[in-house]
User: Fold these one by one.
Assistant:
Number 1:
Amino acid sequence: MLRLTQWFPVTLALAAHAWLAPTSARAEDKDELDGVARLFVEKPGTAEAEPEAEVQVRLKTKRRARTRAVIKVEGRYYDRYVSIKDAYLDHAIDDALHLRLGIDKKVLGLEYQESSRKRLTLHRSHVYEMLESLGLAGRQLEFRLLTRPDSGRDGLFADFSVGMDGSRNQNALASLRYRLGPFGWGSWGLLERHRIEHTYLPVWALVSSWWVESGFIRVATELFAGVDAFATEFERTLGDGHTVAFYGPRGEVALRFALSERWNLEPFVQGSLLTRDAREPEAGYQAQGLMGLNLRSKRLTFRTNVEVVAERGSSTSEANESPQRRANYHASAAFSF
Amino acid sequence: MRRRRSLSNFGLGLALGLALGLLAGCGEASSSDGYGLVLIDLTLTSEAVSELRHAAYTESPVPCDADVAGVRSRCQIQVAGASTRDDLKKNYDLEIGRAYAGKHRYRLSAMSGDPSGMRALLAFRTFELAGLWVPRVEPVALWLNHEYLGLYLLIEPIDSDFFSARGDRVEALYKARDLLATLESGNDVEAAFAKRADGENHSDLRALIREIDKAERREPNQLNDLVETRAVLRYMAGVQFVHDWDGIHNNYFLARSAGTPRFSILPWDLDQTFGNVLEPSDGELFATNALMRLLYSADYARYLEEVERFDQLVTPEVMVRWIDTFEATLGEAYQHDRFLERESLHDQAESLKQRAERQHEAIAAP
């Protein structure tokens, strides 16, 4: 099923402008088509293993009037699902300053900042999945200002965006990052006017990350904190009215062994602990441990990992009063083009 | 050589760890519970949950896996409803790969206007007993990613299949929406009525509105050729009997079919019912719908017959029996629903029983 959001025609019209304007004289600006095709199987807990075949295609047009259109489409065979993930215009004011307008993901934290190809796991890691489930991360219509958007450079980077999603939540998101050789640091902050129960709720989230990355080892640690809008609204309407704020750390260590000139073996571990309600830490938490092994070449990546999640209660549900444990298994093969 | 061997040992150890982890996964038990009702257990990726959270107004469907009464299949889910989109406990439209009770598509109703969880069940059953076509409706326990979302109603959508399943063929079908479906003016008819069947373009609705207007001005008209008067009066009597104030200019379906070629009305979304007790003379209820207002004043005797018919079919004793059954059926799912657990289902049930008595007295009064 292909469903265009109500914002897409606007983006399309702007993209048409980018097509019709004079072409950039820069030799490195050209139409680009890239993407990834993935086959993966997931086995969540006791459920049957489920296969999926997924293709993501991203089209980046040639720059015209310093502006290029970027459209990313994702399709899944077994889900019978096709959707437009990204559709935005990128305008280069100069090499160091870009403006973006369109549908794009909210960049909140290191994992969103980096390319999904660089990610250790098939899906986002547990805390980031939590941010998505709480509606703090995801895709929206946004206007974004980026400094020095090319990855891999040393120096200070800053982004700022304002946006609104399809549930009419409005937000501002800013980040500051610094990279020096293998070392890096970054902080991301979100302020959101969250529409809920016919009113608006102020919501915030913060992510702070430190990382070391050389050819052989990657170590990243992060701290997360934020407001759970849905639990907070629940407390306001049916509970004691307190704001439900979560917090917790996350870490990952990955090694990279060169098996041959083309192939690398990448064993890794990840772990996180998230307290669901800062006011009552003992009432609910989620602990996650994951170990995995990736085999990578330039175009092919084979991933496999086992994840164990332990969860106790939540700030709003009494359904899980005793700790629950789940184990998930993922294996995937991806071809990048 | 030594380096290669240590690498392969490391890889072997990791593979063993992965296998052990997989086995640990196999030993885990499901935490979802139907609480005595049909269990609908949905699994969404976090990305899909995020898209669902971010698409209350754009209504984008997202992929999911569904376990409906033990049958697993792929599914798609999207936020549904109009004024309830911002609710904490949302309504959803669910499409499942493997049919449940012969259907692939369902509405999951959160019943936001009903603290008892049974009002829509009682109202649909009331309309059904009086001979109106109503969707198949069933209480379910809805889970999403190991979290109990609460007591929901699984409601068959009113669409072409709805008529096919009842041996009929739909010719025109419109859903009243956004508090606009007053049948007063043809200007905003597309906004007031969503087309739910192929082949029609609101022209028949415009014709209906024109004839209602003529009839209100006492000019010669062909309203009787367009409206199944008895069926509409029966719907109106049901609306009055259960006090479905939301079904006057908002939540109802206008339909024509091969079996019933003139317009009749089907009830929909009945959670906002059984509020006040109305007397048959409370014609103000129909003030916001031109057709109902006209029929109420022009055909009051037949309207009264229909109201009395409801009262004879759904006596207070019948209502008490239904309420007791639903109280027993819904009890566990209700107690675990975090939106309802602070209410007393028994108190809600008693209140509905008392209302049934009062409604009967209001109709029986001379």
Number 2:
Amino acid sequence: MANYYTDHPEIEFHLNHPLMKRIVDLKERNYADKDNFDDAPVNYEDAIENYKRLLDITGDVAANIIEPNSESVDQEGPHLENGRMIYASKTFENLDATRKAGLWGISMPRRYNGLNIPNVVFSMASEIISAADAGFQNVWSLQSCIDTLYEFGSEEQRQKYIPRIAAGETMSMDLTEPDAGSDLQRVMLKATQDEDGTWRLNGVKRFITNGDSDIHLVLARSEEGTHDGRGLSMFIYDKQDGGVTVRHIENKLGIHGSPTCELVFKNAKAELCGDRKLGLIKYVMALMNGARLGIAAQSVGVEQEAYNEGLAYAKERAQFGKKIITFPAVYDMLSRMKAKLDAGRSLLYMTARYVDIYKALEDIARERKLTPEERKEMKQYSRLADAFTPLSKGMNSEYANQNAYDAISIHGGSGFIMEYKSQRLFRDARIFSIYEGTTQLQVVAAVRYITNGTYLNIMKEMLEEEVCDCMKPLKERIAKLVATYEEAIEKVKADANQDEHDFLARRLYDMTADIIMSLLIIADASKAPELFKKSANVYVRMAEEEVIGHAAYVKAFNADDLSSFVAEEAAETEVAE
Amino acid sequence: MKLRIVVLAKQVPDTRNVGKDAMTAEGTVNRAALPAIFNPEDLNALEQALRIKDQNPGSTVGILTMGPPRAGEIIRQGLYRGADEGWLLTDRKSAGADTLATSYFLAKGIEKIGNVDIVLGGRQAIDGDTAQVGPQVAQKLGLNQVTYAEEVLKVEDGKATIRRHIDGGVETVVAPLPVLITVNGSAAPARPCNVKRVMKYKYATCPMERKGDEPWSDLYETRPYLTLGQWSIADCGADYDQCGLAGSPTKVKAVQNIVFQAKESKTLTGSDADVESLVKELLDEKIIG
């Protein structure tokens, strides 16, 4: 039987990374749970075995239930009935299967009925479900909102809500409003208190993924008279309390299985989560970082599925008396798709590991004081996670689009026909580089690590690592790219013009990601050449092509050149406050 | 109502994915080349059992399987999906059993479990395709039997209401407990394995499956649920002469490939005349006898 996990041994490879030992040791606190929970691991090997079992079940459910339902879900989509969102009929089957399989609340501690799964493994399950149906992946992976409730909610709130998520209740994060998209400081949804202290929410939220969920995290303005992010707090809305209706469900290009709702809050009872005024500046930032990694995983799943579709068609289809996979123009595309997939996946799981280490230490800090070494470790990995998350989300979301585009190209005219899956992947992928922060905003999040040398130092450290003999020539080529990259950054910094800096940021970002992924893929190929040697050869060449091209662009660019780019009309536009 | 439910399940070679080396030169099944799986219709039976349990809190579902030690995997697969317990009937003298000897040993196992309200099994196994074992177990234990079931609609007041598949449609029947039900492949598919249960039971084994050097051996001391039921012929108080090869009147003479030629089928009723004419035809054609 097909299995989205065991069919792709590249995923399991990432469970063998040396950092896994540290992650599991921190997450399991000397395996203390084993005396209280039958499902808790007794040692490191046992924990890894548990993860593999979880992924095996996820791969089975994905391949044999979710994927077969995906076409019907795409065609039917959700609908509105008396102010409620009703999922596509097969989405209910998917939900039922994932609940019976126990794939809910899995990141949570066991004392709340969770499985204490690290982010790496959650991301793998996410990737696997997305490969089967990217739209359903949203409905499922939004359970990770519970991480934020766990981190910032009270013990009472944890006990009330977490076991419900572990039993399969769904979640949403209600942030966006008609006038507050990328700029969330403008959120207007009003939170007021009754005389007895009960919070009430009033207003409208728009573009809310899985918006009719059971438990919502809502960003709302609790401080009357404020206009910026400091007046916003985070609230928990429980659907059982009522007060929120669905006014509209968007008709979208893709991810039809994932309902996008416009919500009307009318005196909806809510609970404050965490402290007032920290809603945007602290909690939503945490929520978004988790969600961004979720989109990176969603993207990798589609990168894989698009590659599989392209490969299967190229092996099958004959033209000019030959299978098209034998034509250089076709295997050029396929090899690039696979290289982006392997490199993008490596970046995703490296990011997830960084997140795991600092989050686990943060969690330990809730129980006891960290040692100075632990505090240093937490800071180091937190910084790495912050630096890697925008690369991982931005690049993978672009790669998913590119792979879906190439899958259609390989199909030729058939790729444009709705009966083939490639068109759905292409439609589904389009949102990945938009929601949870567009690629352009990922660049904004990454740029300070470009100019302050964080990435450059990481590259230099990675260049110190040993690789196998077969990867040494590639490593030398990457070392040259690092030097080229450093020159480009110095040039932009020396020009000291903010507009030029912002304009060239995307190119510097692409160069950064290309080089880091080159270093990751040669490291992977050193350990498992049978899986990654080809991709390493392909990817580093692609990186050279891009980095050298971007470097030439940056070198020849001056602030004066901006006048050729800025639209005449730009001077006339102004937004009223 | 608290019910004791037993599911009969068989480990079979996966004959649905037959490769080139599936048969030996001698014309027997090359078991080593085929992965061993949970017989598909037994999974449908397990799902019905788990649904009855869901509707009747306090009920238990046990897996009863017969086979070599490695068939313990069938019990684990059942536990992963929601079963509560399981027993492996295993004995060197039970090898080579035909349907008669198999149903005898299974019936003895069910007697040993005791107080069973509902026995469920798949309609047939994909390796033998006989559909005989379920009915024979019912006969031996004197249980009511309902075959070709598609759904157990409810179990109430000591009666099970069952929708069964018949030629050209479905019928709903009510049977008093205890009852044996065989389930069709058209019934609801089995639920997936549950992650938490897999983590709990992944090292559960029958004593004969163990080599003794497993890294987790000491867990068997502290976690009794990791030791699965395992009964021999003697444990069940069964008669050796009725088990295994000794208890099997079926002898395979030859195996050949058959391509069905007939395009038409005959419909016979249960009347004595029709049964007699069928038996006569089968004898004349030397299909039986």
